[in-house]
Amino acid sequence: MALLPHSRNLLSSIITSANRMIGMRTLMSKQLVYNEFGDPLNVVKFRECSVPPLGSQEVLVRMLAAPVNPADINTIQGKYPVKVNLPSIPGNEGVGIVEDIGKEVKGVCPGNKVIVTKSVQGTWRNIAVFKKEVLRVVPDELGVVEAATLTVNPCTAYRMLTDFMPVRDGLVVIQNGANGACGQNVIQICKAWGIKNINIVRNRPDISELKKYLECLGATYVLTEEELRTTNIFKEKKIAKPSLALNCVGGKNALEVMRHLQHSGKMVTYGGMSREPVTIPTSSFIFKNLSFHGFWMTAWHEKANQTEKDKMINDVVQLMCENKLKGPVHKMVKFDNYEEALGNALSSKGFTGKGVTLPCLPAVPGDEGVGEIVEIGSLVCTVEPGERVVLSSRLLGTWRYYGVYHERDVHIVSPNLPLPEAAMLSIAPCTAYRMIKDFLQVKPGETIIQNAANSPCGQCVIQLCKAWGINTVNIVANHCGYETVRNCLLDLGATAVYTLEEAEELAVFDTSLTRPVLALNCLGGRYEDVMLKLLERDGVIVYYGCAFAMPLVKQFLRCDATFCRFHLSDWDAQASCVEKDIMLNDIVQLMVLGKVKAPVYEAVELKNYTQAFRNTVHCEAFSNVNYVFDFTLP
Ligand code: NDP
């Protein structure tokens, strides 16, 4: 395994030198920009422009994700105290993959995953040139969301728990806005460092759900603003009075929080969400000797030396890699849909949007396919005319007779690979492969449970598991064609097939199988509940497809289980060429041996595309027909 990064870098550098030799290639960057301060929904525009040549100390980065933070919105509104020269590209933090480096750049290589560590560098673009000094290499295994959101909130939480009071020595911390992105980082870092913490949130109809969620993250106590006023946790000595208060709300809320501080305690204000000033009673200064401070991450960065910055980032990355610090609850938004993310951040519900970089319209549809190389450019060195290839990258448009693709986006497949398998290789089989491999080391003899087992992905899960000696329990809807489906799945290698109702009856997992250690959920609702009921203690449930939202309440009910999401395009965006090659070769080998078959399909001529749409749109849970455009049809 240690070979992977090295080989990938080698491959990347071959491609990079080829690109340099081409020289005249014009690389285009899709980006957001604003020319005046104002309402983000009015002033932020989308543009596409060519990427300038790389300076000797510069790095070309393909961005993977960049969040929308309150500070980004305030900066665009012209209300944030940082100097911005217009026109400006918004976005203060983000993660990407290095594509190319300037002649004098050291310590960063093509293929490295990097984060932007300095504010106002403009991360809301898909391709960017940054000065080397504003980037920092992070481990490949660091999650995209964690990496993209690392420098603002986790670092703010880290600093506030480090710089003001020796809270790690058994002192208690209290904070308001505890449900915010920064607040959730405070809770998790407190848990990791063994600090008792009291968390104040606004009351809401689902308050018990929110309390359980924050407790799962590591909150010692979660109180509403009203409960804080009357609480007797201090009187009854359930917990000592806090020595450090973190305030991002202000107004009455901050006043109530400071009332509970220990003598000589400190309040650190880092935000003002209520827009009300912090009012301090005179007695707090005189009789309680409280002190009041402000914290601003940007100012800290200006003063801190490199050693302090390195230690902080290393510590935060380590906590994230150890899964002790998770990325915020978020919604990935296509870059094209940036207005949704901005609107979300401006709404009263607060921000949940993160931008990701995906291509813009107009686009040729079609996400996977197989073809034969007709012609290659003069510097192409990895494929030859006549070779059969599948597309190994996404969203490149396959619904066309001829397409021009970069050599790194195609993968040579054996001529012995049947065409239907090749045409449907890069989504369902790859999704199944990754979900079985990436979340848990499922051993032969162990069991995986899945719903929508008759889908192309479900069928691939069954076949891959059979090939690897893993049992599968498969849940499908009850339907008039159920018996046929059941037999078909058993033929593919399913260990057990149940209807939803049958599975719900399994009060105890009463088969000869072991309880499933991994659940693959693409449906949600009752289909998800039944899998959670049957899942082994400390098991893992992966959400993919339609079931991308992970309901908080279910996470509390099964707080032993790990809840994960999978999206193939997220994996694709970060995977190295070598990782993709290994996966595709593994799957192709199984397909050539007949161990993984393509789902049943019907060939359609491209010009009859509406037929495929009509049928696919109306496809029922039991439709076992997938449509494939067959370009060889007359
Ligand atoms: P989020 O939007 O994720 O969270 C905001 C939190 O504030 C939520 O918990 C929300 O509660 C709460 N809140 C909002 N309005 C009120 C109100 N009127 N009364 C009580 N609670 C309220 O933001 P972040 O965590 O990312 O940031 C919080 C603040 O900290 C922002 O002002 C941000 O600019 C600032 N910040 C400052 C930094 C610095 O360096 N100084 C660094 C990072 C952030 P609810 O869930 O009920 O909506």
UniProtKB/TrEMBL annotation:
Location of the protein in the cell: Mitochondrion
Enzyme Commission number(s): 1.3.1.104
CDD domains in alphabetical order: ETR
Domain Enoyl reductase (ER), residue spans: 39-357
Coiled-coil intervals, chain numbering: none
Alphabetical keyword list: Fatty acid biosynthesis, Fatty acid metabolism, Lipid biosynthesis, Lipid metabolism, Mitochondrion, NADP, Oxidoreductase, Transit peptide
Keyword Oxidoreductase applies: yes
Primary localization class, coarse: mitochondrion
Name of the protein: Enoyl-[acyl-carrier-protein] reductase, mitochondrial
Catalytic activity: a 2,3-saturated acyl-[ACP] + NADP(+) = a (2E)-enoyl-[ACP] + NADPH + H(+)
Family: Belongs to the zinc-containing alcohol dehydrogenase family. Quinone oxidoreductase subfamily.
Pfam families xref list: ADH_N, ADH_zinc_N
InterPro entries registered for this protein in UniProt: ADH-like_C (IPR013149), ADH-like_N (IPR013154), ER (IPR020843), GroES-like_sf (IPR011032), Mito_Enoyl-ACP_Reductase (IPR051034), NAD(P)-bd_dom_sf (IPR036291)
